[in-house]
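tokens incoming
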């Protein structure tokens, strides 16, 4: 880790309103100092100089953060040490607090809580002296002090840093990937095919930069040989694989990604971030990272939420995806309520468990993946819009890629195309490249036109004809689920199976399809083998506010939101959707 030199010693500093830097003149940029605070995986740490031995004395610092009307603000301060030591996170819930961090030179990133999300309101350089003298960090925030505008409305690009602060620090307030103190991760978007269609790939693989046994070059070559369309390398806590010169291919889309979290609180998979998230810590910081990733066009996914070794206990909102399938469907034993913190076992007056992960954990007769699907269903019923994804977790050739596999409908075969498909919820998962494939569409008003596909939204109160096309599952069973409950169960009569069924949804709900088979009672966990499942088609009231939440386009002839230019006929594949779809045209949101 690079050590910093300073032009002159400074004993104390009083910082009121000002720019990004105080009196300290570091030789590192703010981005570099923040990057130094990010945990480094064991295998890359070997090449990183060890931090200096910590012989610092305790210092004194008074935090004083309020708005311009002197109303105290709930504050979090990240002190990034400029001498190479680790970062220090301080809380001042009442806005003012004396603290005793180690003496030294720091860059202070001052955040104010806006609800449950920290917003960056100031960046200052400070010196905390070792002679007992006090340093002061005083900030007065103008934004949000008067009127009805919340603090986040002063953050144009959604990266949770005030526009004023970005201008002071020299980052771009219109680019969510340009954030004070956070180095930007390069992201190359190269279209390998301009054809819209279903693309299949691996969303959970590890290289030698974490606990994988292959180099990035070997991992990429294996993905190409496996016939995949995309690969995400999800090393724990690092995107070093994406910075490797071997992270390139002319055949498959490579997705910069990482695994984030810990076994105690749960794991997430982050795809396409433009900045590194903070190491797992406080839940409000985790929620901020989740929102920032999405503002940057990336995907924040809950990973293996019901594995007993790492149950999901972050309780975050607004995730994009849930990994409902990791490794073989019945391979992993279920978790139990004993694996969860007591705070997640709360029950309502009727004795029902309140939290989705706890309700799923109470169903111990199934595998961890079946519990994950149940957790996902509970969250969908509560209003979450998140697609299903799968991953093998391969860390060596001993574990084949794409078993299970994720299919994504994308407008083109590119990084941005795959990320957009995930964000719009256009996915289904299957047991492998040779597993069943699902197309699921809805024809509102049953007029012979396909209006939405997987990930789309239909209105309430209108007769809708759903159509299912399943390929490669003769003799298995198709199940249609409405908000997690099976409403149709039918034997699949051939390898190119079509089925239509009418619905007139009266209340908000979701529909999804899965393919099942009887389980081998001698091996695995649970009574049912799942071979494939789709993400939902949603039914809900179409209101003006929905347009700001759902990126799909508005259909002129009718009155609902379809999937954006959804064309479910992949190029060069043997299966076809039986209903032709006319092109869709956008309509202004203020019509």
């Amino acid at each position: 880790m690079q050590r910093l030199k300073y032009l002159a010693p400074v004993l104390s500093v009083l910082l009121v309103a000002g720019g990004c830097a105080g009196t300290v003149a570091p030789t590192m940029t703010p981005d570099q100092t923040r990057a130094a605070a990010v945990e480094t995986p064991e295998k890359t740490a070997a090449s990183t100089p060890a931090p200096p031995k910590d012989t610092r004395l305790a210092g004194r610092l008074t935090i004083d953060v309020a708005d311009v009307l002197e109303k105290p603000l709930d504050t979090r301060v990240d002190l990034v040490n400029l001498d190479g030591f680790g970062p220090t996170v301080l809380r001042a819930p009442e806005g003012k607090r004396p603290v005793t961090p180690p003496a030294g030179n720091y860059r202070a990133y001052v955040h104010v809580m806006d609800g449950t999300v920290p917003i960056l309101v100031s960046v200052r350089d400070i010196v905390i002296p070792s002679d007992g003298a006090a340093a002061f960090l005083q900030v007065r925030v103008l934004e949000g002090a008067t009127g009805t505008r919340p603090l986040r409305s002063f953050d144009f690009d959604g990266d949770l840093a005030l526009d004023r602060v970005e201008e002071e620090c020299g980052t771009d307030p219109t680019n969510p990937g340009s954030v004070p103190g956070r180095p930007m991760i390069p992201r190359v978007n190269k279209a390998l095919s301009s054809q819209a269609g279903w693309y299949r790939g691996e969303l959970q693989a590890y290289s030698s930069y974490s606990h994988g046994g292959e180099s990035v070059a070997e991992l990429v070559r294996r993905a190409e040989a496996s016939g995949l369309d995309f690969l995400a390398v999800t090393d724990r806590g690092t995107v070093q694989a994406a910075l490797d010169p071997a992270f390139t291919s002319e055949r498959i889309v490579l997705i910069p990604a990482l695994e984030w979290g810990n076994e105690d609180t749960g794991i997430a998979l982050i795809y396409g971030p433009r900045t590194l998230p903070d190491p797992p810590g406080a839940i409000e910081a985790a929620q901020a990272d989740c929102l920032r990733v999405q503002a940057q066009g990336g995907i924040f996914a809950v990973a293996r939420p019901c594995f007993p070794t790492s149950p999901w206990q972050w309780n975050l909102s607004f995730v994009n995806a849930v990994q409902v399938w990791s490794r073989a469907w019945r391979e992993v034993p279920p978790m139990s309520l004993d694996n969860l913190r007591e705070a997640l076992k709360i029950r309502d007056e009727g004795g029902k468990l309140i939290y989705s992960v706890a309700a799923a954990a109470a169903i111990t007769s199934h595998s961890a993946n079946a519990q994950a699907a149940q957790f996902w269903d509970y969250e969908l019923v509560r209003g979450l819009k998140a697609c299903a994804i799968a991953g093998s977790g391969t860390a060596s050739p001993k574990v084949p890629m794409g078993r299970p596999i994720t299919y994504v409908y994308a407008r083109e075969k590119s990084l941005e195309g795959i990320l957009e498909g995930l964000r719009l919820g256009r996915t289904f998962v299957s047991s492998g490249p040779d597993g069943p494939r699902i197309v699921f569409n809805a024809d509102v008003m049953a007029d012979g036109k396909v209006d939405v596909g997987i990930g789309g939204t239909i209105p309430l109160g209108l007769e809708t004809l759903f159509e299912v096309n399943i390929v490669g599952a003769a003799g298995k069973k198709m199940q249609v689920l409405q908000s997690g409950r099976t409403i149709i169960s039918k034997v699949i009569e051939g390898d190119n199976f079509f089925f239509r069924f009418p619905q007139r949804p009266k209340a908000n709900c979701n529909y999804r399809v899965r393919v099942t088979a009887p389980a081998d009672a001698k091996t695995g966990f649970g009574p049912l083998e799942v071979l494939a499942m789709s993400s939902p088609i949603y039914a809900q009231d179409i209101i003006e506010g929905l347009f700001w939440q759902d990126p799909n386009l508005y259909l002129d002839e009718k009155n609902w939101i379809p999937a954006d230019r959804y064309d479910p006929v992949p190029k060069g594949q043997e299966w076809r959707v039986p209903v032709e779809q006319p092109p869709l045209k956008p309509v202004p949101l203020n019509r």
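note: The chain has a mean pLDDT of 86.
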